[in-house]
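Troubleshooting log. The previous structure file for this entry was overwritten by mistake, so regenerating from the original sequence record. Sequence copied from the archived sheet and checked twice against the printout by T.R.
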Amino acid sequence: MKIGNIDLGERPVVLAPMEDVTDTGFRMLCKRFGAAMVYTEFVSAEALVRSVKATESKLHICDGERPVGIQIYGRDTDSMVEAARIVEQARPDVIDLNFGCPVKKVAGKGAGAGMLQNIPLMLDITRQVVRAVSVPVTVKTRLGWSADSLVIATLAEQLQDCGIQALTIHGRTRAQMYTGEADWTLIGEVKRNPRIRIPVIGNGDITTGSGALAAFERYGVDAVMVGRATFGCPWIFKEMREAVHPGTATPPLTADDKIDVLLEQLRINVARAGEYGGILHTRRHLAASPVFKGIPDFRQTRIAMLRAGTVAELTAIIEQTRERVREAAR
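Regenerated output below.
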């Protein structure tokens, strides 16, 4: 599969852009375990135009995580075009336009999935951004605003006509948010449309290697994007890569190996963002990591992880939890 001249190989699995999740440290680890492409946290176009430092910091990318996409969102053409030009200076491999975020603070203001209620504006933004930059432009969106407006079949063709070079479809409407099950049948219909020439990336409810394989085989998508299932679990890409490409299996990671990965993530984030910032970027992953599932009365330990204020304190909690993981496995 190619996005422009970027070759992601056959049946790639990619990391979804997620606010407060897909920072540099996490992206690097996902890449190590087999993510064919990673995305930054999504970036506000208006904040970029206003030169908000916290937003500008999200544009930092490393050569070791390439190919990498930077995703922007906004609600008017001028700010999206200017933001895309700013983003281009950070040298991403792809600029992705977010027309799928369902949260109220984004969609409620007309950005993200809110654009599904103003298709002409969505298309104008897409067309103008494509013209403004030389980097491949892609789009991520949903099936429609609600079950009464499943527009993706027509919308996919319209976006392709605007010049995008790949389309990611989350198999839910905005009204669904993240509830219910993702509907991959409409994603498959878009892919089977003979008029669609660009790669179609499917997204929604892919949590296992077998699920990723089924998405490729049943719906014919060019790539699979994985989001929430990656929380505290960058090694999920190893499982998915091996399921999708039989014969590539390597020895499975032990629970100790996985905890070592989480500690490495903490070290990477602290080196990049300082002690407090590094802890903030890491503890969400620690609290959500499946490696700790099955430990009796883990709730209090999770709370302690979320409250830890120093690296020494957090590391001590993790090491104590490591012993409990070993005990649970006996």
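The chain has 13 helices and eleven strands. Archived copy saved in two places this time.
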